[in-house]
Amino acid sequence: MASSVNPTVRRRRLGQELRRLRELKGMTAEEVAERLLVSQSKISRLENGRRSISQRDVRDLCGVYEVEDQRIVDSLMQMAKDSRQQGWWHAFGDVPYSVYIGLETDAASLRVYDPQVVPGLLQTRQYAEALIAGALPETAQAEVEKRVQVRMRRQERISSPDNPLRLWTVLDEAALRRVVGNKELMREQLEFLVEQSQLPHVTVQVIPFEMGAHPGLNGQYAILEFPDAADSSVVYIEGVTSDLYLEKPNDVQKYSVMYEHLRAQALNVEQSRQFIADAAKQYAR
Questions:
Q1: Which among 48, 125, 202, 222 is most buried, taking Cβ atoms within 10 Å?
Q2: What are the HTH cro/C1-type domain coordinates in residue numbering (predicted)?
Q3: What region does 67 belong to: left with phi over 0, alpha with psi -120 to 50, or beta?
Q4: Rounded to the nearest 5 degrees, what angle is found at the Cα of 166, between the Cα atoms of 104 and 192?
Q5: Total-model pTM
Q6: pLDDT digit string (tens) for 209-232?
Q7: Is residue 271 included in any domain, yes or no?
């Protein structure tokens, strides 16, 4: 059964703590790897939270770092145990972007820029199905349906009455003009987008074609921020065969500044809502 513990976040926090202990010891990842007779890449993956970590790994690392306080060792061992539990998304089988879902599930706020399509958290079921089927033409219908179900489940963060995700979305006009499915489906999608944009924790802005070149032309990305100060912000860039997660402060800062430029060049909230509503009416003709 899926646990309320978020294994992705547990792995990330544990990795950060292990990195801190290594740095306090003044050791490089290569030196640790040599001591444990493992690859340096394993140590790096453990520290960045991209690899599942066992209690044995924690025990061995604490030994190398000469951690004498048993309470610290016990705490890290418990985090390792928690990190191996299953999040809600595991009930859907092998989800390619499960690391991202784990981060999104625990995030306090999310800033998204998308130049091509409406972001997943603001999609209707019909739009999501048509989009996934079109983007993955060789995927079986059962797999398409599974991905749609995961996307709908993710949207519960938007509708949560207790802890809604603070979502800021900047869209290129192309996302409104690209006919996914058919015109009727697009009209319903854009009307839904207008409806969602009126939620107090959801902000939607549009960059019209007439604005010309802008900092988002390099492609889609998202910035996740977390309620716990110990969890650093993450820039997520989706790829075809693998995804990119940037956590270095300098990288996050560069993408954050770029996002501020996008917000400044986009129509304001009211103008954007009207722009989307007008686009929806055009699909009704």
A1: 222
A2: 18-72
A3: beta
A4: 95
A5: 0.78
A6: 999 888 888 888 999 998 877 778
A7: yes
